[in-house]
Structures are given as structure tokens and as C-alpha cells.
Amino acid sequence: MAGLKELRTRIESIKSTQKITSAMKLVAASRLRRAQGLIEKSSFYNNNLVSSANRVYFELKQEETARGVSYIYPKLLRGTGKDETYLLIVFTSDRGLCGGFNSNVARAAVKRIEELLAEGKKVKVFCIGKKGRDILKRKYAGLIVETLEGLGSKGAKYYEASDIARQILAAYDKGEIDCCEAVFSYFVSAISRQVKISSILPVKIEDFEYNKLNLPTNVVRGAFYDYEPDKMELLAGLLPLMFKASLFQAVVHSQASEHGARMTSMDNATRNAKDMISRLTLKYNRIRQTAITTELTEIISGAEAI
């Protein structure tokens, strides 16, 4: 029967799709585990870096108070003196099939762009990931200054984030931008993530969450700190590293969120395929049983007529 043949074909097609989504779920789960490990490892480096910078900054502030002077801090810390031009770095993926991951980030970016434009600011957008560019260009194509695809295709790499940071710092030194913000998905767990808009330039040492929870003191375990080279030179060297670390944190959290979203999405798709196969199989068996019953009835009726 035509109905049975169509159902068989459809069931086989859904089974093939189920195998694909199941495989994609396993791949995403594997990549997620690696990304989670990278978040944990990089956080140790990042926390030690911001802690060191915070201690230097803390002692410089103490010297200002004690001596009654005002130091001229590095440009990365004090800013350009204005906030007219903003660079938004939007982190999305190059591929889809990850639920609302890309659309949620793009929606937050659009909202922030509209806020800045309403305030009379000039906005530039740096899209990291093809999907974000595809969404934003529908309305703000003129604001997109660059798109980077394939970042961390084999896992996030620090040198990739460092290259992007050098490019942005060069634009900052030339006065092409005044502020830089990262729009990314912050990884909480495999099934939970939240979109964050983080100001990463100029560097605000006191705004780092680790420094809010771990305030520096003059004495640590009975030992006083001394510095070589001097504190201001050391701070000037730490600030670019902090900016690069912040950018790298956005990369690893974005990638972990992507893999978590894809794993969840493919798990839902696999379960939906299983449910659909069950329903179609039941329908197939009922139609087949009806057909067999009809044939038997016709045979018995024919035999009785004879």
C-alpha cells in the first residue's frame, strides 16, 4: 500500500536524522568538557594577573594619599579622556544548530547598539563568528568594521585572542576608539548560560570580580612587597596582559556556551526524533493490521459465498 510505503520511508529518514543528531550531541559533549577545563585553567592565570595589578594599583593610590600627589596613570587605565567612539566585540558561532545561542547574543548586541546610538555615540562592531554578522548586517551592516571566522575551530587558543587584542590596542592608541565592550555568552553550566556585556577597555582594575572579593593589604603572611622595576612601569606592563586575558575569557566562555547549547539542542532533537519514530511506527502497525484484517475478512467472505 502507498500509505505503508510512505510511512516506512519517513521512519527510515527520521532514524537517519536521529543518528546524526545523536553523534553531534556526543561531539558537542566532548568539546564542552575540553572547554570547561580551559575555563578552569585560564581562570587561575587571570585571577593571579588581576590580583597582581590590583596590588600595584592599591599601593600607588596609597602613595598618592601619603605624599599628597597625583600620578599620571597609563592610557589603558585612565582612558582617552572621552567616550565618543565605542567598539563592540560580538562573540557568536560560525555554525548553527545550537538553539538560541546566537540569536540571544545578537539581540543583546542590537539593544546595546541602539542605546549607544540614542546617546549620540559612534559605534563600531567587530563580529567574531559568522552567525552574529549575518544577523546584525540586516540592520547595522554599516557599523560592522570587521568579521573574524574560524576562531578556535579546534579549541580556543590564547595566541588568537592575543592577536585580536593587539589589533584593538593599536586602534585605541591611534584614537580610533575610546571604549571597548565584549558581548558574549557567559558559561554557567551545560544547560545554563547568560549573555553579558562587559566593558574591557579602558581597563578598570577595581571592577574585576576577583578584586572585589579579594582586597589587597599592606602585609601578606608577614611579608612586605617590593617591586622591580618601579610600580608605574610594572602596572603599564600588566594592563595589556589584563586586556588580553579578558578577551580570552570571553572567547572560552563563548565557546563553552556554544558547545553546551549545541549539546542541549541535539539532545532535544534526538529525543524528539525518538518520539516521532514511536508515533509513526504505531501508526504504521495500525494501518498494517487494518489492511491484514480487511484481507482476511474478504477471504472469509469469499469462502462463505462459495
Describe this structure in words.
The structure is a single chain. By secondary structure, this protein is of the alpha/beta class. The protein has helices at residues 2-67, 75-78, 101-118, 130-140, 158-173, 209-213, 231-305; strands at residues 85-91, 122-128, 144-148, 179-189, 192-201. The chain has a 5-stranded mixed sheet, sandwiched between helices. Strand 2, helix 4 and strand 3 (144-148) form a beta-alpha-beta unit. Helix 1 runs antiparallel to helix 7 (231-305), helix 3 (101-118) packs parallel to helix 4 and helix 5 packs across helix 7. The longest helix is centred in the C-terminal third of the chain and has 75 residues, at 231-305. The protein is elongated. The mean pLDDT is 88.
